[in-house]
Amino acid sequence: MIELINVVKQFGSFTAVKNLNLNIKQGEFLTLLGPSGCGKTTTLRMIAGFEEPTGGDILMDNESLVGKQSYERNVNTVFQNYALFPHMNVFDNVAFGLRMKRVPKNEVAARVEKALEMVQLPQYKDRFPRQLSGGQQQRVAIARAVVNQPRVLLLDEPLGALDLKMRKQMQLELKRLHKQLGITFVYVTHDQEEALIMSDRIGVMRAGVLEQVDTPEEIYARPKTVFVADFIGEANLIPFFVEASAGGWLTGRLANSRIRVPGAESFIARQQVKLAVRPEHCTLLADVPEDLSEDDLLAVDLLERIYIGATVKTVVGLATGETVHVSTSAGREIPFVQGGRAYLSIDTDKVVTLSE
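and the corresponding structure tokens:
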């Protein structure tokens, strides 16, 4: 539905977006995710028409949007600061865009009522923004955007000003609203968990470059770069020297053990790579099981125990000096003794091998 082709955006000598190529599908929930200054909001603003690309093209339904004013594009934007009119009540805020388009009065009333029902606020139509909570104001801003029946809804960190509990509530509300409306959502956030929860696909950006676009499951389980592995969720990134490569498997030594991990055919012997290992794919053992030897496990030092409610994170040290985080269900972890010794088992089938 929307296609960005070799899009570049420069501000003076600074390049905010670099040769970005992206296809956004009809009806999907696509999230642009990355740290501050990575170019995600600039990309959203170019789709909205608030910024013009320095180079490349942006198409909607195969028609270029470049040069079109924001009001000429069938998109609406929801901002982090809501941008509600303080002197207007909820009804008038939502009706504003329709009145500007000179929609008939009876149709305005019907569409506003429907929009407020969608965001579950019909009883608040006579209140003013100052009389609403942050979450309610955000819902009014969303109603004002969807009442115009855009084909695309652009959301620029819309939950950033809310507290944690309200953010989680609104995440579910937005997912429900997306299914109900059936329109395309393009969402910008720096919150990794938010992106994983809400999105059909995620585009991870760094320094103006789109590093990977995929489903939340694929991005978490099979990151394509060290940055994506480190930015999405938590990953142990362990240096690994490849001794042999054959049939999609790499063999080499890690601390005191010789291990075999999946690896693309492009990886070769004598190459230094990074192993991305999720904490939940690591297991700590207090002793060596009878069916294994110490050569099958990694001897580690217990450094720190961190209680996180349902899970416990244990930080351990390898003989080579690297630290590894291990995630265990609370109550199932081994006894922790600061500076004590244990054995680490890694689910090597779940390891992702990445170029440094």
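(Above: one complete record from the training split.) The helical segments are 40-48, 90-100, 105-118, 134-146, 164-181, 192-198, 216-221, 226-231.
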